[in-house]
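Kindly go through the entry underneath: sequence plus fold tokens. Please state briefly how this chain folds according to its tokens.
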Amino acid sequence: MRSVKKYCFDWDNHIVRFMMIMFLAVLPVLLLLYYVYSKDRRSPEPLSMLVLAFLVGCFSCLPASIMEQWLMPFAPNDAVLGGLFEGYVVAGLSEELCKLVLLMLVVWRSRHFDEHFDGIVYAVFVSMGFACIENVGYVLSSPDAQATAFMRGLLAVPAHFLFAVAMGYHLSLAKFSSKQRAMHLLLALVYPVLLHGTYDSLLMVSERLVSTSVEAMAFSGLLSVLFIVFDIRMWRWGLKRIKRMQIMSQTEGFDRCDPFKDFKWTD
């Protein structure tokens, strides 16, 4: 009888721990979704479209994973070159390309995509769907799930949010500016890939060098400092673009054929 009680008690503890870990993994996603949704004040997007965008983002993990598995054998053995290849090509290009393609399939021709800030909203929901699945996978497979959930909630999930801001920003400019549509569609991929690649490469190269020579360890420390500087700059860059798209959406009577008319880009 005691063994049965002990088994039930242990089983309850496992359930509680699992639920707590899942909550920690999903919480940063929910907070960032609420943040971007609260910024869409003029004409909030319908819940059905937001749920669809999020689910599409969850699904984007599958083709991105397939692309990553296909590209990994091409990674150089060198610590620096391998880290750069994995950061920019394996992770950056694969993940951002899949997110952008599925984002466009869902929202590009939607009647609800009718103002500039919508591009950022939908891109963030797609990206947070991807980040949610990725984060849960990393946390559940980690030997120290709570520490992993905390660090990824502080860095990795917000990074996906900022990649999405860059993507949605240029997607909106492409949507409402026919003169430079091709350029902004290209930038909707290029900028997220560059941001994602730089973010991952700084971490990957630093991690690979940390256990080698003294000089390499010093260089790894320098990369860690550069990573912190880059992350702060990326936040400033992303928040400015959120503000710009809010202004564009809230300005009544703007010309969709020339959305930059009379707009001051300098602070």
Remarks:
- Confidence is low (pLDDT under 50) at residues 1-9, 252-267.
- The CA atoms of residues 20 and 146 lie 9 Å apart.
- The chain is about 80% helix and 0% strand.
